[in-house]
Amino acid sequence: MRHTKKNNHLGRTATHRAAMLSNMAASLLTHKRITTTLAKAKELRKYIEPLITRGKEDTTHSRRVVFSYLQNKFAVSELFREISQKVGERPGGYTRILKTGFRKGDNAEMCIIELVDYNETYNTGDEKKKTTKTRRGRGKAKIESGAHEGKKVDSKKADSINVEKVVVEEPVVEEPVVEEPVVEEIAIEELPAEELSEEIPAEEPATETSEE
């Protein structure tokens, strides 16, 4: 029975497995991302994340502990100089696993394991703050939606939630502007007073008729 044996041996002896994980961890620290099988990536994540946490404290003892696992002075210097500054504010979860499909031949499930803070695609822009919704807010939204749809709303609920009155503005319809025809004024020449008196006959006085 395999009681208390949860680690994946990966089909290797203990020494072979430790050497393989050490080499993979050094490659990941140097290149920031590597391609491997999903089973190896999951074991590598458990192996390397405690070492990155140890790298946040730059002391002689921490360097010697990390070097005992990696056996690579270039990877150790990379961890304590650059990577520790990059992940200094992160409390954990330094790696990310991205599945890429299945390998031809043995059909093994492949993936990419990478350091989270070195992926520019996922880290562009600020993260949006998550807004928490409460039951009170959802009730208010329901009442407001009911007011829009013309449904009856209980006055008690409306008073308790302080629903604001919704003012619906009617669309302003512009009347078509009708252009009036432009009438050209004809200039009348002023005639002398003598000509006007000749042309316009004088009115005859009205004669009164006596009633018989």
Walk me through this protein's architecture:
The protein has 212 residues and is mainly α. The protein has helices at residues 14-31, 38-55, 60-70, 73-86, 135-149, 155-161, 193-199, and strands at residues 33-37, 95-102, 109-115. The longest helix has 18 residues, at 14-31. It is elongated, with a radius of gyration of 46 Å.
Number of beta-strand segments: 3
Mean pLDDT: 77
**Biggest sheet statistics:** 3 strands, antiparallel
Q: Which CATH class of the domain at 14-118?
A: Alpha Beta
Ends distance:
155 Å
| Overall geometric form | elongated
Largest sheet, spatial ordering of strands: 1-3-2
Q: Please give the radius of gyration in angstroms.
A: 46 Å
- Counting DSSP H or I runs of 4 or more residues, the number of helices is 7
Structural class: mainly alpha
Order of helices and strands: HEHHHEEHHH
Tags for this model:
3-stranded antiparallel sheet, 212 residues, elongated, 9% strand, single chain, mainly alpha, 50s Ribosomal Protein L17, Chain: A, 7 helices
List the helices and strands and how they pair.
Elements (H helix, E strand, L loop, with lengths): L13 H18 L1 E5 H18 L4 H11 L2 H14 L8 E8 L6 E7 L19 H15 L5 H7 L31 H7 L13
Antiparallel strand pairs: 1-3, 2-3
Helix pairs in contact: 1-2, 1-4, 3-4
